[in-house]
What we know:
Elements: H1 3-17, H2 24-34, H3 44-55, H4 73-87, E1 88-93, E2 96-103, H5 105-117, E3 123-127, E4 130-135, H6 138-148, H7 151-200, H8 209-220, H9 226-233, H10 237-256, H11 286-291
Antiparallel strand pairs: 1-2, 2-4, 3-4
Helix pairs in contact: 1-7, 2-3, 2-4, 7-10, 8-10, 9-10
Amino acid sequence: MGTADRDLVAALRGELAAVEPSRACDRAAELAGLGTATVRGDRPALARLVVRLLRGGASAGGARPFDWDGAADHCRSAYVRGRFLAHGSLSVASGRYHLEFVVEPAEAGELGRRLAEVGLPAGVRMRRGRGVVTWKSAETIGTFLRWIGASSALLELESRQVARSVRGDLSRLLNAEAANLERSASASARQLEAISTLEADGRLDDLPELVRAVARERQARPESSLTELGEQLGIARTRVQRALERLVSLADEDDLRPPPHRIRARGSRRTAPDRSPRIVAGGRTAGARRMA
């Protein structure tokens, strides 16, 4: 996780720890959610939160368990906020979010059931002897953060998602545009080569005027699209395309012809020598006459 992501997670915990419940029942619910984990020395912010809650009139969290089934929604929210501060974590990496609670095995299933009741179903599993309740859906995590009061952190997450989505869309658009330009440049080069070939052997002048006009325009504007060539000539794009395809096809036919030294002039076909016996006077062949 990068520095910016770690800062975001730290800001999230700081924002939640700074929430000041206005109702006494909410303060008691959050304190119950925090439990006894706040005595750890590496979480001074949570220790300060406990002091504030106690000063606000909440009783000690361990005095009695939280009555989830009989609690109002705002009390449930406060309780879960406390559980997240004490046992939760959020990981952000490469645009992927992972939020989890790591609790006692006996609590994992119950916490999963409670979250499902408020419309936040989560995965529940065991990991190295601990219960893990987790979400990987950015949408669900956003709903959860909004529910427990982390509005600023949620806005930051959403802005990151939007920025990442825009960057992804822009990257795909640029890649597609680059591919189109590459194809257009390759096609234009092939068309120019075909025109040069037809010019060199004099066949270009024998083509219809429209095809010759398209060829001249392509030579003058090698970087222009078919639509732009059509606009310059005052004809439809499809006519420009057909004319260029014809030029390339004719040049390709020329490439397939055999070399000139293998083509004999018309009427110069060689014939096999006549080896049949010749008849001379007297009815004998020339060979027979010599023998005589």
